[in-house]
Structure formats: C-alpha cells, structure tokens
Input
Amino acid sequence: MKTVKRILTGATVFAFVLGGVISNPGFAQEGSDPSSIPPALPPVQSQGQTEYLTGGIGTDESEAILQAARAWPLVLELAQNGPTRAAYISDVSVTIKDGSGKIILDTITQGPFLLVRLAPGRYSLDASYESKTLHRDVNIGKAGSSRIVLLWPAPGKEGDSR
Output
C-alpha cells in the first residue's frame, strides 16, 4: 500500500511540475525563447588539417565570434578605412602558408573575422581585397591567441596599412 501511495504522490508532483513548465515560458526548453539563446557561431570548416571559421555579419554574430576567439590561435579582423572611420569588410581572399611554403588555408571570408586553428610555428599570410594585398608574417606560440587587424586604405588611397 505504501508503494502505491508513493507512486501516486510522485505522479501528482510530476504532473504539477510539468503543468508549470508548459504554462510558464520561463521554464520552457532552451530554444523556445529566441531572446534567451546565445547567438550561434558560424560553422567550423576545414581545409586539409586546418580548421577555421569565418563570419561576423551583424552585432550578435560578431560578439559571439569575439567571445570564442580566445580559444583560437589566430584571429584576423578585417576592415577598410573610410572618410570618417574604418568599416568592417567581407569577401577577403586569405592565403596562409606554413614555414615550408605549403598552402594550408586558401579561403574567402564570409565576414570581417577569420579564426584559424594553427599549430605553433611561423606562417606567411596574404590577404587581398579590391586588388590590394596585405602581407604579414605570423608567429603562433604554444599558448594564447595572435590577433591581427588588417586595415586596407580607403578606396582611391595608396599606402601600406597596418
């Protein structure tokens, strides 16, 4: 008799809790309230052994990428000078070569950020936007993240941007 009473009590409590979850959106499953979901990162892609992600279109995605950036050995931020301030850019052709000159990543960005998982070592990076190529030599250490901001000159301006 005690076992039956425990089962009925448990079932009553379960029904009460379930009813509260269904009627109260604050207790609903994650995903039912779009404002409570952290923004999704763009998908991680691979090229050979190299993993990367690119994106950052919109404030939410940019913030998510910047939060995730600490876990990536190389972070590129891409912008172009403008009349009053720099603006983020996309569709930048990026090629990264290892110390022996072998291409380990050749991609076109889908936003102003490119995060790349690289082994420690020295790399050569070329990034092209509107027929202007910027070159950087990159040294990836065993810990931490290397963040490089590539800034192209304003349209019609010449000069080396850093």
Summary: Residues 2-23 form the longest helix (22 residues). The beta strands are 45-47, 50-55, 74-80, 87-88, 93-97, 103-108, 113-117, 121-129, 132-140, 146-152. Residues 64 and 127 are 23 Å apart (CA to CA). The two ends are 80 Å apart (CA to CA).
